[in-house]
Each structure stands twice: as C-alpha cells, then as structure tokens.
Design goal:
The complex is a heterodimer.
Chain A (H helix, E strand, L loop, with lengths): L1 E4 L4 E4 H18 L4 H11 L3 H25 L5 H28 L2 H32 L13 H5 L4 E3 L4 E3 L2 H17 L4 H12 L3 H26 L5 H21 L5 H24 L6 E5 L1
Antiparallel strand pairs in A: 1-2, 3-4
Chain B lengths: L1 H17 L5 E6 L3 E4 L6 E10 L11 E7 L2 E12 L2 E14 L2 E5 L3 H4 L2 H6 L17 H17 L3 E4 L3 E4 L3 E8 L6 E11 L2 E14 L1 H12 L1 H27 L1
Parallel strand pairs in B: 2-12, 7-8
Antiparallel strand pairs in B: 1-3, 3-10, 4-7, 4-11, 5-6, 9-10, 11-12
Helix pairs in contact in B: 5-6
Classes of the chains: A mainly alpha, B alpha+beta.
C-alpha cells in the first residue's frame, strides 16, 4: 500500500513507515527516550531525503512525548521551573540550529556533519551507558548493595553566578547551567532530529545533580516544547517538514509507546539500560561505517 | 543558447517549409495532464499519431520516428564526493544552467542509426546530446566529469532513458510509443516532441505539451509548506500533540 509524500517527493509503503514508527514507539515507551536517534537514520536508509527525515522526526517526537509528560505531570514529577529554563535555552538553540543547518546545507556538508554528530554522541553515550549498566549488573550479581549516589552537582556548575532555587529538583544553582544544557539539546534537535533525551537525562543526573524523581518528567517536558519549536524552525527555514510522513510515524509511535510503557516491568532496569546501550551502539557503528564505505552515489544534484 | 538552438532548428527546417510537398505529423498523447495524487506510483504515456503524406500516397521506403518527452530544465549544482581522512565527503562542485529534469527518448530504430550526428545535436536527440550549459567557468575536463556524473545519476534514477525500437509504425502511416513516467517524476511543464526522420534528417516535427502537477491534497500541502510556512508548522505541531493526546487517553480507557 503506497502513499505519496508531498514534501519528500516520493511514494512510500504506508505499512513500513507505520511499522517503523511502531518499533521506535515501543522502544521509546520501554526506555523513556524519544527514539529520534533511531527514526532519523532509519528514514534516511529508507531513502527519505536527510533534511525531510530530520525535520519530520522532530515533529513525531513531539507527539510521542505528550503521553509521558501527562503521566509524569499527574504524579508531580515535572519541575516546571527548571523545565521553563531548559525550554528557553532549547528554543534559542533551535533557532541557532536553524541557521547552522541552512549554512551547512549551502556548503554541502550537512549530511557529513549530521553523521559525525551521530557517531560521536551516540557512540559516547552508548559506551557510558553500557559500562554503567554492566557495572550495576555485576554488583547485583555479586550480591552487593549498589553504591549510594552522591547527589551533588558538578564543581563547574557551582562556579556559575546568580543562583536560583529549583525546589522540586532540590537544587540551588545558577540558571545558566540548565539554560546552556537546553541550548545544546535544541541545537541537536534541529541538526539531528533527536529529542536529546539520551544526553539530557544523564546530564541532569550527573552534571546538575537533579533529584532523579523529576528527571525523566522534566526532560520530556523540555523535549515536548523544543521539538515543537524545532518543527516551527524547520517549517520556516528549510521547508522540510512532511506532515504526511510525520502523521504516519505518529500513528505507529503513539500506539507503540503505550504498549512499550506497559512492557517496562518485564525486564529489570539494569538489563533494560544495557539493551538500550546495545541499540544505541549498533546505530552509531552503522552510521560510522556509512561514512567510510564508498557511497552508492558519488555525485549529488541540488537545484539552485 | 536556447534561442540559438531554435534558430538553427528553423534554419534546418527551412528547405522543408519551402517545399509544400513535405509530409506532416499529426501527433497526440494519451494524457495532457498527469495528476500526482496520494496513490501515484508512476504512469504510462502513450504517444501516437499519423504521418500525412502529400497527395495521400505512402512512400515505398519506411519512415523513421523518434519521440522525446522532456521535463522542465533547471539550473543545478552538482557535488562530487571524495575520500578525505577515511570519510566520503562532498569535495568539489560544478553548476549547470539547464539540466532537463526528465528526458525520455523512444525511436523506431536505435537513434544513432537513423540520424546523423549533426542533426542529433541540433534536436538534442539522445542522452549524450543534451546540452547542460556548464556555468562554473571551470576547466572543461572537470565539467565533463560532472556532466557524466549527473547524466549517469539521472539515467539510473529512471529520469533519463532511451528506448531503441520503442516506436511502432504500422503501414508506414500510424505510429505509437509507450513511455513510462516513474513515481518520483519532478513536476512541471513537459513537452512531447515527435520527429519524422528520413535519410538521417528531420523532415517534420511536432510538439504537444504535457502538464505534470501535484493535485488535490498533495498540491495543497506542498503549497502551504512553501507559502504559509508558519501556519503549516503550527498545524504539524497541533497534529502531533493531538495524536499523542488521543493515544494517551485511548489507552487509559483500555487499561481500565
């Protein structure tokens, strides 16, 4: 069953795209990540132009994070104060990213830069996550108690001026830290079509030292608004948002996410994190190989 | 460049304009307008027509026919990748002023056998005779490499094609050719040209226009994305919020 995508300019198999959204949604529900890091490369492998894949994946993540924000909001697990600072940084990052995207596109280097960012960020996060989860599994296996997490923020953060109180996060830190963090994820959302949860969550825990109870909810809250801002930036600068593609992905991912969220209890969290680390590393390696293999097309045509 | 080509074509056709005894072509196409709608997976065009000979008598030798469907020409930038530091990166580029977005040729016999090379160049018969007009002012060798690159890309993508024996001529009077239009076809004003060829020369030519356009919902979406980009983006955001919300509510109901 084929459907023509008006912006991507090609016909796709509806079931493949919905299925793709479903698998990504399932994973995002299980692991509490947006899944953009999977959607964007898979769409590009399928033949969707990279700009359209990045822009439409951002739109899809907005929808996928709605139910998470609602669920965490009901449980009072969102620090709206912290979220607002993150969103402000993220929105600015998205706008800056829009200009960077346009400039890289004009230079013809957007694909290479996006791929390199994928390799570095996913590879790094994947390795850290794998080491951490294996460590946790080994400690458990030996019957030891996990070492208590010191809930202190990074010394670099303490240096920053003007401190604010973030009650729900249990922090008294400079708003510049979350603002910069938000800015970085906003940039990533525009350039890579990812929500940035896989960077945001560890950074909130290990750099800011936020109370883990509000980390996931606040990160989802930020992702919801920043991906929405990214959709607007892409719609107005690159004109690459394909509403039909995003809609198909959403149908799959919103249902997948609900099912995934109910499957979380099937596995211990350490094993779940190890599995996620494995998937992240596989994507990073695949993208890295794609950079070094001779591409099927040496030439690319761009209308002037 | 285009004007010059037209003048040359007219000059080449001058002898036959003066000779009132030249044959005439009456061409038609199966579809004057191709609408790209949601289920578009390509189309097949039938080009057919009749050759009218003066006095109604068919000559003893067989005429040859070539038909060309050409998409709108556009200026493009072509980038070439090279391996730098172990990675394939876009390294150099060249621009061309008029690259046809689509070119399909069908002829009654291989095109090289029925026209001489000068005629082939004048009428742009054959993929190798397309004039892409390099605009970078770089060295001709590099332009040649990029030109071959883009032609090869378009050929494998199904945008450029040549079919020898693609035109059927019956009784020396009626002809027909089928040309398939791929799903990823670029939109715009297309032309279907028919050439009647005798002794290696074009003796009659006729053109029909074909309009290929996105229509219905697809056209509306593409237009809004381009013109009302703010509202379009807003709609995309609202759509994703709504779908996420609906799924969340629906599954909560299911859970109870």
């Amino acid at each position: 069953m084929h459907l023509y995508l008006p912006i991507a300019g090609l016909s796709v198999n509806i079931l493949v795209i919905i299925g793709l959204g479903g698998i990504v949604g399932l994973l995002s529900g299980m692991f509490g990540v947006g899944g953009g890091f999977l959607t964007t490369p898979l769409l590009i492998f399928y033949g969707i132009p990279p700009a359209v894949a990045v822009a439409s994946a951002a739109t899809q993540i907005t929808g996928a994070s709605v139910s998470g924000v609602m669920a965490h909001g009901k449980r009072d697990a969102v620090d709206y104060h912290m979220g607002a600072v993150l969103v402000a940084g993220g929105a600015l990052g998205a706008v800056a990213g829009g200009f960077a995207f346009r400039a890289l596109q004009d230079m013809g280097q957007i694909d290479t830069v996006v791929s390199l960012l994928y390799v570095v960020l996913l590879g790094g996060v994947g390795l850290v996550m794998a080491r951490e989860s294996i460590g946790a599994i080994v400690t458990q296996w030996r019957g030891l108690k996990p070492a208590a997490q010191g809930k202190r923020h990074h010394p670099l953060i303490a240096v920053l001026p003007f401190r604010w109180r973030f009650y729900r996060s249990g922090l008294y830190i400079s708003p510049l830290a979350p603002f910069l963090l938000g800015f970085a994820t906003g940039l990533m959302t525009v350039l890579m079509g990812v929500g940035g949860g896989f960077i945001l969550v560890p950074a909130m825990i290990y750099l800011l030292g936020m109370s883990t109870r509000v980390v996931v909810g606040t990160s989802l809250f930020q992702i919801l608004f920043v991906t929405a801002a990214t959709t607007m930036v892409h719609a107005m600068t690159t004109h690459a948002v394909d509403i039909v593609l995003a809609g198909l992905l959403l149908i799959g991912s919103v249902t997948g996410a609900q099912i995934g969220a109910r499957m979380t209890h099937l596995m211990k969290p350490e094993y779940l994190r190890l599995l996620l680390a494995f998937i992240v590393l596989v994507v990073a390696i695949r993208v890295a190989l794609g950079l070094t293999w001779q591409p099927p097309e040496i030439f690319t045509v761009q209308p002037l | 460049m285009k004007g010059l080509k037209r003048v040359m074509a007219v000059l080449a056709a001058l002898p036959l304009l003066m000779a009132a005894q030249a044959p005439r072509l009456v061409p038609d196409v199966s579809q004057r307008k191709i609408d790209i709608i949601y289920s578009f997976t390509g189309a097949e065009l039938l080009l057919f027509g009749a050759i009218l000979y003066p006095g109604g008598k068919t000559p003893s030798r067989h005429p040859e026919i070539a038909v060309v469907i050409k998409g709108p020409a556009e200026p493009v930038l072509i980038r070439g990748k090279r391996k730098i530091a172990g990675m394939w990166i876009n390294a150099d580029s060249a621009s061309f002023r008029s690259v046809p977005s689509f070119y399909a040729l069908a002829s009654s016999r291989p095109i090289g056998d029925i026209v001489d090379s000068r005629t082939a160049v004048i009428y742009e018969l054959g993929i190798d005779n397309l004039q892409l007009s390099p605009a970078s002012g770089g060295d001709p060798g590099a332009d040649r490499r990029f030109e071959e690159g883009v032609v090869d890309l378009k050929r494998r993508g199904g945008y450029y094609s040549e079919t020898a024996h693609g035109v059927e001529i019956s009784e020396g009077v009626l002809y027909r050719a089928r040309i398939s239009i791929p799903a990823r076809v670029p939109v715009g004003k297309y032309t279907a040209e028919t050439f009647l060829i005798e002794n290696g020369r074009v003796v009659a030519a006729a053109t029909r226009d074909i309009d290929i356009a996105k229509s219905g919902f697809e056209a509306y979406v593409a237009k809004s994305a381009d013109q009302d980009s703010f509202l379009y983006g807003l709609c995309a955001v609202i759509l994703s919020l709504a779908l996420g919300w609906i799924a969340s509510i629906a599954f909560q109901r299911l859970g109870k």
